[in-house]
Amino acid sequence: MKTFFVVLGASIAFFLTVAMFGTAGWERPPLATTQNGFRGTGMDQIHTREAVAEARAANAAPAPAEPAEEGGDLAGQTYENVKVLSGLTTNEFNRLMVSMTEWVAPEQGCTYCHNTENMADDSLYQKRVARRMLQMTQHINSDWKANHVGGTGVTCYTCHRGQPVPANIWFTDPGPARPGGFIARNNGQNLAKPSVGLASLPYDTLTEYLADKSIDNSAIRVNATTALPTSKGKPIQDAEKTFGLMIHMAEGLGVNCTFCHNTRAVADWSQSTPQRTTAWHGIRMVRDINGNFMEPLTSTFPRNRLGTLGDVPKVNCTTCHNGQSKPLNGVPVVDAYPALTKVTVADGAKAPEAAPAQVPAVPGTPAAPSAPQP
Known about the structure:
By secondary structure, the chain is mostly helical. Helices cover about 35% and strands about 5% of the residues.
């Protein structure tokens, strides 16, 4: 028995020695911590400083182009078939076109959208889409300024990042082909999709909550609004879909749940951060974009640009945020491009306006029927 303990002790000493030398110099990396809630509630965002630096570098906003010379004829007088930016001077128009080329198609150049033998030609679908995207950008910077994008605004680069097709777009996910007959339904789960953080949650929550402009405002909420139940309530499957959406939003913004919620009372608006109200509006802005700007372009896109089910590419939180709580590190990108903050008329029709979202003076007021309830 004595021999056994001697051997055991020697073995432990040996492995501890190996561990000591093998892990020499290992220590926890420096952390960057931001408190965004009440002290003692654990409402903090914690990242490594290295990760923060990498994210900032990956989300650097490009420098704006040099200001255009003032004066001169309007673009609508100089060029043919200018339908959205005809009120700009020719110099301002050319400056914005050059910037858009750098933001969207730096390798392809002007030929990505234009027939350079006839710049007025609308035969390329990219030009027709770009015209509508200009209206969308103006709409976001004007009608959603107060409730979501603020003075920071967005430009084409916010989503495109120098690529003709933004990296973070999505289509309705039909899931795997399933045989007919009597077979258990998986409720769209257990497929480890990136849209829900590779969890086993329902993988197509984006279609249910972000694709349609007319989605019921109470669709996401699964908590009861009273202390005791007054109705049947929602099934556990709806709660799983809501968790899937929340995971998408957290990953899209590079934050955790406490960025918006006090996790001791997740549903209580009075204990939530101001970011929760901003996110509430952001959900509705995404629906507005997908329903009023992207969906109508279904017939404009060629079949190879559509999803498996024939739906258009759509946006979500990650499309703009790219893992940052503020896109492009919060740089006010529209200051240098005031033309992108005005809603103009194209093809004789005004760009659709976002439905006004009514928020109570104190989010969470139970009696307010229009209170945001994500």
